[in-house]
Amino acid sequence: MAFTRRSFLTGLAALSAGTLNSHALPGLRTSFPDAKAGSEKSSGQYFETWSAQKTGVTWTHDNAFSKLRYLPESMGPGVAIFDYDNDGWMDLYFVNSGPADFFQPTKPLRNALYRNNRDGTFTDVTEKAGVAGRDFGIGVAAADYDRDGWTDVLVTTYGRLILYHNNHDGTFTDVTKAAGLDEPGLFTSAVWFDSDNKGLLDLFVCHFVKYDKSLEQDCSVNGVHHYCYPKTYEPSPSRLYKNNGDGTFTDISASSGIGKYIGKAFGVVATDINNDGLLDLFVANDSVPNFLFLNKGGGKFEEIGLAAGVAYSADGAARSGMGVDAADFDGDGRQDLLVANISRERYSIYHNAGHNTFVDVAGTTGIGMATVMYTGWGCRFVDFDLDGRPDLILVNGHPDDLIESVNSSLQYREPFLLFHKNGNGFDNVSTAGGPAFKESYAARGLAVGDLDNDGRVDVVVGINGGAPLILHNIVSNANHWIGLTLTGLTVGARINWSANGAEHSIFKRGGGSYLSSCDPRDVLGLGPAEYADWIQVQWPAAIGWTDRFERVRAGKYYSLSPGGKLQ
Amino acid sequence: MILLLALQLAVGAARHYENARQDFAQRKFPEAVSEVDAALHENPYMVPALVLKARLATFAHRPDVAKSCLITAVTADPTSEEAQFFLGVFHYTQNDFKLAISPLEKAQTLSPKSPLPVFYLAMSQEALGQDTKALELYQQAEDLSVEKSPQSASILVAYGRFLLMQGRSEDSIAKDRRAVEADPDSRDAHYELAKGLDREGDFKNAALQGERALTLPELGTSDAQIHFLLANVYRRLNQPDLAKAHLEKFQAAPQSTRR
Q1: Average pLDDT value over all residues in chain A
Q2: Is the bond preceding residue A77 a cis peptide, omega within 30 degrees?
Q3: C-alpha distance from residue A128 to each of A83, A91, A111, A142 (Å)
Q4: Among the four residues A107, A191, A421, A549, which has the most C-beta atoms within 10 Å?
Q5: pLDDT (0 to 100) of residue B11
Q6: Neighbour tally for A177: CB within 10 Å
Q7: Position A519 pLDDT exceeds 80
Q8: Backbone angles phi, psi at B73, to 5 degrees
């Protein structure tokens, strides 16, 4: 950084008084230009906002705000989109604050599970389901960890983890203790993934910092408490739990090598950076270097963030990473990475250059300048317009609610950002995002999923201290789609397809975004083609099977098990 | 009698200010503070003295005093290019880029041939994510800074760094090479050139420029930044011992973050 404040001050020292000339002062484009893909131009906006009045989702997040501004207040909430009752429609789960050593709510707070009524409305089934939480909840990760065909829910909190086992009857049971996950901490994002290719979903949980009320600092400015920057707190290692296959887990943080790296982890995504069939972990840390845990097999990981070029900025500065995601956004067959950082740091979008190395292409893709004023949390690569290429949504908000009192250039509430993938980079199409993109929010968690089974991927955003936003995808074009519900172990699967001769690919990563959990199904964008020429599913290495189907008709969701037929 | 007294005060203020200015140039900061206070005691609205006091206050980590002096100065004389410029720079250094724009634009209007207001406008617009405006302003600043000097080198370095952030590494390298020509002893210029060369895959010359930067006085670019760069460059050059040595020095240095 050539022009830091320090360099400026040094420059001032060299100035003679009273002279300025002395030494050392230092559109939106809704185009789809890929002719091969032959996709249709989108008209109008991407999303409409479904109101609470329309949906019945009246739950709101209470951030436990206090004048003393305790750290966890600023962190949540996470959201999840998953099908808890196996009816083929995506339900919603929201995480709320609750009692803690620094907070006693004046009225009971709870998480919320909403059943999808299949008509754009939802019904609150929290109490019946038994997933209210009532801890100081932060994040959520949903998956079928016990392979019984029903999705279970892990909630991260300030205090502990909560594992809700799905009872197959619309209810859940808190099995945290029996599962061996009853540990204290300040947990944020989590990801279910098969760490050792044994066919079971293991669990990585981000741990932020060592924290309790007694460790809170006074970060006052002019006598007014602000939220402290994370560098104020001591770092802490994250956790890796091995799934024993009998409903219990074993903490293998130490033996895996992950436990020796102390960070301040906010976001995590499991992906395969070197196409070796082993799932690696990319962890965004706040104010300390990011971690890239390369899976060496046999339950061992090697941290290669520095050598890979994803730990620091180009100037060797650790940034404030929050949300993360992974996708092959440039179509070269390798998984690229994204980190949402704090204002002035620009978000990082890392092109996978092969050989376990990455290059930050925030400048050339336009993501860098578009994000320089924002602080990012939830984020996701997903194809919103069904042209077969991943677009990108980012939701933002500065963590300090008083930031405007100390810096008029920044805002506490910030707008969402939406980028459309073009041939070489991304076009900022935020102005076409819809009404929600014209407002500003203290956004945190973000999950994507098809809430109305129309093949167009919708978005749910958790707002710190406010009501969630449900963004219904209303992209209007002639593009077609195929939905795919893979059953069983799916994280690590690779889906390839061809439409009108244009080939596309999705690698099913685990986790990603921030504190949140997305619709496990995949929507394959076909452009204007009414059939996929072919679809190939390469199942995770633990399954070791590839399925291929020719000429698949568009316009519906298909279910697939390894070796099975599209149904 | 009153006129005589006023004249004496004016002369006294000017004399104290001149002393302060000389002390400041010689980095005798305590003496400069005394003299500038004496000048302002006799003439509280003496704009050059207010600006000088603001700059001294900045050194003393008293941004509140600096801001107060600069606002008084631009209020007393809105046509003071110096006061407007330093008020803009003050906001820039406080990361308050939106507030920096207006006084810098006034300074630019008052002194259209000076590259510095344009330069700081460019950096402010860059910080606000206004890349098109920033690009135009950097070019203006470069055009106004025709003589080879440390100042023009600083402008070229910032311009080159901006271009590198845009992914325009070849253009960035060209600016950095000119910065090195303008000020061969600029650590910033050698460092930024090394970064551009590294991005372009010219690791050997990147290493040379990085090593050269390390030998120059540390003003803006820190040793840690250069060690970080060199660790990566030597790793790419397959010189693990050198890479390791620089990495260890990087890790031993205080880690920087923006927060």
Answers
A1: 92
A2: yes
A3: 16, 15, 13, 18
A4: A191
A5: 65
A6: 10
A7: yes
A8: -65, -45
Is the pLDDT at A114 greater than 50, yes or no?
Answer: yes
**Which helix (H) or strand (E) is A268 found in, with range?**
strand A265-271
Nearest to A2 among B99, B158, B256 (CB): B158
How far is Cα A458 from Cα A392, in angstroms, rounded to an integer? 13
Taking CA atoms, A185 is separated from A143, A261, A405, in Å, by: 22, 16, 32
Which of the pair, A435 or A14, is modelled with greater confidence?
A: A435
Closest Cβ opposite residue A316 in set B92, B97, B250: B250
**CA A65, chain centre distance (Å):** 24
Which tokens is B211 given?
A: 């090593």
Longest dimension (CA), chain B: 82
pTM: 0.91
Q: What's the rounded Cα separation, in Å, for the pair B27 and A269?
A: 53
* Of residues A262, A459, A466, A259, the one with CA closest to residue A378: A459
According to DSSP, residue A90 is labeled: -
Cα gap A108→A102, rounded to integer Å: 15
Residue that the structure tokens 């074993």 belong to? A250
A17:B96 CB<8 A: no
Task: State how beta strands A557-560 and A480-486 pair.
Answer: parallel
3-state secondary structure A228-242: CCHHHCCEEECEEEE
Distance CA(B156)–CA(A249), nearest Å, equals 57
Residue A510 tokens read as: 């685990």
HSE-up of residue A473 (Cα within 13 Å, Cβ side): 23
- Check CB contact under 8 Å for B158 and A372: no
A64 vs B2: CA distance, rounded Å = 65
Alpha-carbon gap, residue B211 to B200, rounded angstroms: 18
Q: What is the ipTM of this complex?
A: 0.86
Tell me, what amino acid is at A350? Y
Is B220 or B10 the better-scoring residue by pLDDT?
B220
Span B241-253, mean pLDDT?
95
Phi, psi (5° rounding) for residue A390?
Answer: -75, 125
Residues of A in contact with B82 (CB under 8 A): 18, 20
